[in-house]
């Protein structure tokens, strides 16, 4: 589970992007921390990069496919 020390650096968001699911190799739409909805493993992924390939993260037989969901969005400052 993602952790934080200083809550003042985080804010609650309601974007539909938190409900989107991604497969291994899909292109990441937002930089941030993603969590596998099946097993709870977490990764950091950068906008525009692919999610880790299937062989990076494995599930036991019968667990279901890897599905990444946005957990924490890394918002970049606008100049």
From TrEMBL:
Residues 1-22 are annotated as: Disordered. It comes from the Bacteria. This is Protein L. It comes from Salinisphaera shabanensis E1L3A. The gene is dpi.
